[in-house]
Amino acid sequence: MLILFSLLVIGAAVLGMPRVKGRIGEGWVKFFLSKLDPERYFILHDILLPGQNGKTTQVDHIVVSPYGIFVIETKNYKGWIFGSEKSKKWTQQIYKNKQQFQNPIHQNYGHIEAIKNVLGEQVKLPYISIIAFNSKADLKKINISSPDIYVTYDTRIKKTIESYGDKRNVIPYAKAVHDRLKSSAIAGKEAVKSHVTQIKTDQKQVKRKVHNNVCPKCDGRLLERRGKHGHFKGCSNYPKCRYTA
């Protein structure tokens, strides 16, 4: 009994790890995407692409179709979720506890830019950004104005993609785009380790700049300001740069 209890405790701890929870969320999205027609939708999962300045970008899921390129970011959160398209941070609330996380729309925008960098301007398919939350999340108040951005549940992701039914290109063209992305992917454990190291380094650089009152976005000076939610640091180049900390 003691061994069984210990295994249950260890299993619960492992399942609670952010990386493991993220993999579980990606697994569910992968399952729902597998229901799409394979003759029209060409799917890539967990793909590492070259970005700008020698960096890399990891994309959870890409669906290439004759109707557009769907770029999917999965979020395995629970509780109430609040956010808007242009806000820097979103809020997760569980009872009275609130915590903020990076705007996933901004995060996915970086993924789309990396894909565009690989494919070039000759690919004329539209890009559709989808943020997929699991069923444990309750999307309370999400403000989106752009027509090609969706924040939804993983159970509705297939329906969201299939709602784009206006055929704009021949199917072989979509397959060629899929194949090009696949051939451009960076594979291997060393590449993944390098990507993780890059993320940690970038985070440290941002913290260091903010600590020294330097804007990590444009290198302007960060100034102490006061808003309706209290004190914060804002870039001196506002409104050209809207970075806050």
Automatic annotation (TrEMBL):
GO BP term, pick one: DNA topological change
This protein's GO CC annotations: chromosome
Domain NERD: start-end pairs: 21-138
Name of the molecule in the record: NERD domain-containing protein
InterPro entries the UniProt entry points to: NERD (IPR011528), Topo_IA_Znf (IPR013498)
Domain of life: Bacteria
Database matches in Gene3D superfamilies: Bacterial Topoisomerase I, domain 1
GO molecular function, one term: DNA topoisomerase activity
